[in-house]
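Q: I'm writing up a methods section and want to include an example of the input and output format. Could you take the sequence below and give the corresponding predicted structure tokens, formatted cleanly so I can copy it straight into the document?
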Amino acid sequence: MFGGLLILLTVLFYLPMTLLAPLRETTPVVPAHVEEPGPAAALAFPGYGAAAIGALEFPGVLAAAGSEKALPMASITKIVTALVVLQKHPLGVDEAGPRVTMTAADVALYTSYRAVNGKVAPVSAGEVYTQRELMDLMLIESANNYATTLAVWAFGSEKAYVAAARDWLAGRQLPSLTIVDATGLDAGNRGTASDLIELGRLALADPLVSAIVGTEKLTMHDVGLVENSNELLGTHGVTGIKTGTLDSFGANLLFSGEYAIGSTSITVIGVVLGGTDHPTLNKAIVKLLASVQEGFHEVDVSDVGEDFATYTTAWGQTAEAEAGAEAVLLTWSDTPITAQVSVDPVRLGDAGARVGEVVYTAGERSVVVPLVLSSALTDPGPGWRLTHPGELF
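A: Here is the clean output for your methods example:
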């Protein structure tokens, strides 16, 4: 009778507990994963003035050379003028904006700026220009007289404009930029190369300013052909932004360019201050841009099926946690690449079931790759369950 009771208890308790109980989780083994970075960038910075390089897709400044002091911006100042005016008088890319009638004061500006060898565009009293046309003349032709005309129209006086510009700069954490007029003819308009990279970001972020500085030429009533002072525009990938010239300092260029790095597009922002003249400066920037492109790398960090962890169950089945997708990571120079692998313990799973992820990071850029089971982990069956009760639960 006792033997029968034992058999009954076995049937009622042991068999269900072993045959139906959940299996113990299998914890994966995760080996160290190392990803080699790209080679260090070797940038062809010119050996004068100040220079810096950045990219829209990367925060901050990627590299800089030369003086770290605030230097004369020259007509790069007009980018600040444009953005400050647009803050008070917003204008869409396809909008003309208010009409502004030229007066004797505007003619006097033309005369005074021409007398000091400043870049000007012709004007006559009674001519009427839209806000958009004034901005075109200021940013494309780099006409100093129209820069002041625009600032006075927007704020009532150049002094009021300067106050507004300083408030605008204070709100955008550009501490080195100093504005004393709307044109940049005064050498007191200054900024560091690093802060000018951030000004370039702001210019490209504004649809209207970005469109204007990317315009090679246009024809305007009462003026005629208006050609961009940036002679690199449309060549070597250059898309903008603004030239600057002061006889007492030299030639400047705040520039942008669009390039394909593998399958990824990037927008480079750069600035060089203090060239001897624009032809010399332009040659130096072409060399610099070529070296900048070589400094970016599209690293293949993951291929489909690449193994990152191994599951080995108590009953002898094996499966890998493998990459479920390929991935590339755009990196700058020799920025280190880290791989953080996160995988879950599993009991059973179908082939292709997601079991974790690996996060590749280089600087502030990252990409996430899903990890999936390479093959199914299936139930070991009743024979193993009945003979290995200690491996259950």
